[in-house]
Amino acid sequence: MPQDSPKPPESHDAVPTPQARGEHFARFLHRDSKSAPMGAVFAPTITPTSLYALPGDPAGAHQYARWSNPGWSALEAALGELDAASAVIFPSGAAAICSLFASRLRPGERLLLQADGYMGTRVLAEKFFVPFGVQVDLCSTRELASRSFAGYRMALVESPSNPGLDLVDLRTCAARAREHDCWLVVDNTLMSPLGQQPLALGAEAVVYSDTKILNGHSDVLFGHVASRNAELIAGVSEWRRVAGAIPGPFETWMVQRGLETLELRQERMQASALALAQALAARGGPLEVVYPGLPGHPAHALACAQMQGFGPLIGLTLPDRGTAERFIQECRYLRPATSFGGLHASAECRARWGDPVPGGFIRLSVGCEPPAALQAEVLRALDVVLGPPPAAAAGSR
Ligand SMILES: *Cc1c(COP(=O)(O)O)cnc(C)c1O
After folding, report:
1. Residue 393: what pLDDT?
2. Closest ligand 1 atom to the C-alpha of 96?
3. Domain 18-259 grouped into CATH 3.40.640.10
4. Is 161 near ligand 1, meaning CB less than 6 Å away?
5. Is residue 157 within 8 Å of 173, Cβ to Cβ?
6. Which residues on neighbouring strands pair with residue 209, listed in sequence order?
7. CA dihedral for 146, 152, 153, 159, sign (positive or negative)
8. Would you place residue 7 in the very low, low, confident or very high pLDDT band (cuts 50, 70, 90)?
9. Sign of CA dihedral 155, 159, 164, 166
10. 270 CB less than 6 Å from ligand 1?
11. 221 Cβ inside 6 Å of ligand 1
């Protein structure tokens, strides 16, 4: 059962200083260092069970394992800390998003989705909620800034969008959504709670695919919802309990373990991604780089104000699909895979999924490789498929 929504601590400003962020994560890592009783196990435990002892009238914290598990409570407390909210975990990001739709939307009500957001969210809404009478409208990230939320029960947005990496001002959206009793839900998968705090910016809820950077080891699917709204938390908890969209004890334990290194991994990825994006932009030649951390990004100022770091994803456009595929194959430190936020750098041509991007557009997810080694290898592979960079051709490299 979810706890009452905790009050956000003082340090939970919308854009905390690097020092405040460091202290928050240090506190997070040591959250039970002193409160544990003598002989307690510090490592997270796994409780694989379907039954709990339940004689007589039902009572107590644990009655049936579709309703609760000690491992869930431990992970929910940890995830909740990171957003200063209550968290409810699910077996995937998609299940977490579904819980929000199912618990909030009724026939005749309207849902606003991002046209350039995660495709699975739109498919879920259109295949399973539209037939039940929910009206779904689409709006691009760029149009969101001036979009009215009047008449919507819920709007689900992502900033930066993926794979386009467009940004929207979340504080402004949240304020306008509140005027119309529209729940602004931010899918914060790309940035994690360490890279962006949508609840502090006024959003009603955040939803995550923990499959990505939160677990970070590319070995489990998982998701969660976090919110300071007790009604919302009760709704998604009830949905999980009744619909049975429950995480397994073992996966729960794996995510708990992965989460402990989130700060370390994310700092490395973001620093490496920024340096790589700068190197790609400096290289020149027939390529285009999109990264919110580059001063040339149209929303760079907003990125600096709203995010802490710029995320692990770089958009790299090469002249055509064939060149892009050859580059991914040539580069020894890129896994050809879909997904992002894992320890290993990965890349794919998004055109293969029908995204409205040029054939040569690559979504490149920077991992935890030693940054100089990754950068040198990416530049080497580019030289192989594109020929030497303009500066080298002019004799200055
Ligand atoms: C991957 C992803 C999802 C879906 O998560 P799963 O864990 O694959 O179910 C939802 N939103 C975003 C932004 C994602 O990247």
Report:
1. 63
2. 9
3. yes
4. no
5. yes
6. 223
7. negative
8. very low
9. positive
10. no
11. yes
Share of the chain above pLDDT 90, in %: 89
Q: Which residues contact 208 (CB under 8 A, 6 or more apart)?
A: 93, 96, 187, 188, 189, 192, 214, 223, 224, 225, 226
Show me where the domains of the chain are located.
Answer: 18-259, 263-390
What are the pLDDT digits (tens) for 334-357?
Answer: 999 999 999 999 999 999 998 889
Q: What is the mean pLDDT of residues 172-188?
A: 97
* Backbone phi, psi, residue 184, to 5°: -85, 115
Q: 238: exposed, middle or buried (C-beta count within 10 Å: 0-12, 13-18, 19+)? A: middle
For 292-337, write each residue's pLDDT tens digit. 999 999 999 999 999 999 999 999 999 999 999 999 999 999 999 9
Residue 174: name the closest of 208, 151, 144 by CA.
Answer: 144
Q: Is 218 in the pocket of ligand 1 (CB under 6 A)?
A: no
81-91: burial string, b at 16+ Cβ within 10 Å, e else: bbbbbbbbbbb
Pairing of strands 183-187, 205-209: parallel
Please name the residues in contact with 195: beta carbons below 8 A apart, sequence gap of 6 or more: 266, 270, 307, 308, 309, 311
What are the strands, taking DSSP E only, across the chain? 86-90, 110-114, 135-139, 154-157, 183-187, 205-209, 223-227, 288-290, 313-317, 335-336, 346-349, 361-365
Architecture of domain 263-390: Alpha-Beta Complex (3.90)
- What one-letter code names the amino acid at 284? G
Per-residue pLDDT tens digits for 83-102: 999 999 999 999 999 999 99
Q: Mean pLDDT over residues 110-125, rounded? A: 96
- Report the distance separating Cα 330 and Cα 340, nearest Å: 19
Residue 237 CB neighbours (<10 A) = 20
CA of 178 to the centre of ligand 1 (A): 26
Bridge partner residues of 186 (DSSP): 157, 206
